[in-house]
Design goal:
Blueprint: H1 7-40, H2 49-69, E1 72-76, E2 79-87, E3 90-97, E4 105-108, E5 117-118
Antiparallel strand pairs: 1-2, 2-3, 3-4, 4-5
Helix pairs in contact: 1-2
């Protein structure tokens, strides 16, 4: 069975979520720069194909951490995560996007991001 979070449980994980997201954002930027440099100039100060593969592997490891916690990653640029939850007997996702100060939004599970509302 999929994990169902309370608001408090999800918020208690936010420091770890932010640590993983900070690392993911840094690796995402390095990988983008490396790929651009290799495609345009044929070389990069960040390395070559082996370094790109290492960046990709680390991204996969970080994404696995989210999966292991029961957190759904909906995007990585920007990073968007959902915590499955229930509010008032309705299936929802507690929703956080890169750059937000804290976990303050939710949406009904079937509506996705366009249905976001502030947590009561």
């Amino acid at each position: 069975m999929d994990k169902i979070f309370t608001v408090d449980q999800a918020r208690s994980l936010m420091p770890q979520v932010r640590e993983h997201v900070d690392e993911l954002v840094a690796i995402r930027a390095d990988l983008a720069e490396l790929a651009h440099d290799l495609n345009t100039a044929g070389f990069s100060a960040l390395g070559g194909i082996p370094e790109a593969k290492a960046f990709e592997a680390r991204i996969a490891e970080i994404l696995s951490w989210f999966e292991d916690q029961g957190i759904e990653v909906k995007g990585i640029a920007p990073v968007l995560v959902d915590f499955p939850a229930e509010l008032g007997g309705v299936s929802v996702r507690l929703c956080w996007i890169e750059g937000e100060a804290g976990l303050a939004w939710y949406h009904r599970s079937e509506l996705g991001f366009p249905g976001r509302r502030r947590l009561p």
